Amino acid sequence: MRKVLTVMAVVVIVAIVGPVAAQWIPLPGDPGLWPYGDGPVPPPVPPLNTYRLASCVGWNPLEGEVQIYSVGGNRLADIPGGPGGGLYNGNRQSRFSIYSPTFNSWVSADGTTPGGLVGYNNGGGALDPTVGQGTGYVVDRGAYFNAFVYVFGGYPRWGGRMDRYDIVNNTWTSVAKGDDDGLYNNGGGSIVGTSFWKVEVAGELMEYDLLTDTFVDYDLITVGYQGKPIPGLVNPQIFAAAATIGNKLYIVDTDAAAGALYEIDPIAGTVVAKASTPTPVREAGSVVWNGRLYLFGGRTGAANTTATTLIQVYDPVGNAWYNTTVALPSARSGFLAEVVGDTLYIGNGLDNNAAPGVLNDLWTINMNQIQLIPEPGTLAVVGLGLLSLLGLRRGKK
Q1: CA atoms within a 13 Å half-sphere pointing along the CA-CB vector of 136
Q2: Taking residues 172-199, what's their average pLDDT?
Q3: What is the Rg, in whole angstroms, of the alpha carbon atoms belonging to the chain?
């Protein structure tokens, strides 16, 4: 009888941690991500996808639905013959695509046609503060506010430019310029209240007022822009992730900081260190759903071969991280991840091969299928508790 009960206990524990078949559904990938007319001549290459792109979701009043907006990114290889050895040396793209969940289709916009997304010179990489990159080249998320899509900064430091897409009038405008100190590729910004917030440098949080389309300078006396002082605020490493939960900004630092998580109250001007993510990753996708932060995939190191299928979830109420019963359909980094209602969409990015490939796909799953499971330390406690309840501790008759 003791052996039977022991097996039962093991089965119970396995049931908690065992994988569940993920109901991922493949959808059409964006067919028009490349080529785009954002260089001197259209590139004579077939369509290819991008990675390290900005994205956001928001209501489209013209079509009466929430849509996914995907901006910028990086192309894997240059085309021979241009400055620096490639026609699009540096690969920053001004591509812009919109996905409709209702019609399950993409609409793509040219990067240089009148009214299109302009600037973002893909030439030899020379810094020009008047021609910004601005398209979230390093996973910085875009932002949606009142039927406008905002994108900021990019790699390298292109003058701290904020650009705005008017959904109703189908036009892009460069609306303001802040500072470029440390802004180009640290933790992605996020909206709290009516402002877009992002770490500027250690100890300062940049604020962009979405109501007035201006950067708020907290030091108007001295020369130069200064963000809001926050004692103890660190400058995250590159490829960090950020999200808003309630009225707080959460930034998950990269593997260089052992997955450190910071909770920032931009209004009160405070920062609190929270539980670090169990598996530090860079270039991970992230969404907020039901008050929790979901961290998808990413790389555990600098090598592209370290990309994972892992899904990690942070619950701010208990200050605890969880694994899940579902993994991504394939390992990837630097990809789109957005949630519309209860539906998660992921796509694009790099795979985990030694010679990385740019993925051209889109997948969806209902978030309710992604069940949480405790971390291994918690499972050990649960297992001991079950054994104790069943009277199976060693020496027990």
Answers
A1: 34
A2: 76
A3: 22
Relative to beta strand 214-215, strand 204-209 is antiparallel
3-class DSSP assignment, residue 360: coil
Position 117 confidence tier, pLDDT thresholds 50, 70, 90:
very low
- pLDDT, one tens digit per residue, over 72-86 is 776 665 544 444 444
CA distances from 107 to 8, 29, 41, 98, 100 (A): 53, 11, 22, 5, 8
Domain coordinates in residue numbering, the chain? 1-20+376-397, 21-370
Token pair for residue 67?
A: 């849509």
Q: Are 104 and 28 within 8 A, CB to CB?
A: yes
Q: Dihedrals φ, ψ of 6, to 5°?
A: -60, -45
For the chain, the residue count is 397
From its phi and psi, is residue 112 left (phi > 0), alpha (psi between -120 and 50) or beta? alpha
Amino acid letter at 60?
A: N
User: Beta strands of 178-291 (E only): which ranges?
Assistant: 190-192, 195-201, 204-209, 214-215, 228-229, 241-245, 248-252, 261-265, 270-274, 285-289
> Which residue type does 102 have?
T
CATH superfamily of 21-370: Kelch-type beta propeller (2.120.10.80)
- Contact between residue 155 and residue 138 where contact means Cβ atoms under 8 Å apart: yes
Q: How far apart are CA 226 and CA 215, in angstroms?
A: 10
Tokens standing for 177?
């310029």
Helix H or strand E encompassing 266: none
Phi, psi (rounded to 5 degrees) for 12: -60, -45
Taking residue 209's Cβ as centre, other Cβ atoms within 10 Å add up to 14
Query: Alpha-carbon distance 71 to 67, whole Å?
Result: 13
Backbone dihedral angles phi then psi of residue 68, each to the nearest 5 degrees: -105, 130
Give the count of beta carbons closer than 10 Å to the beta carbon of residue 231. Answer: 8
Q: Indicate the SS3 state at residue 186.
A: coil
Alpha-carbon span 243 to 261, nearest angstrom = 11
Is residue 197 left, alpha or beta, with left meaning phi > 0 and alpha meaning psi from -120 to 50? beta
- For every residue of 21-65, DSSP letters joined together read ----EEE---TTSS--S-SSS---S-----BS-EEEEEEETTTTE
Which residue type is seen at 266? P
DSSP conformational letter for 252? E
Task: Please state, for a pLDDT cut of 70, what percent of the chain lies above it.
Answer: 64
pTM: 0.82
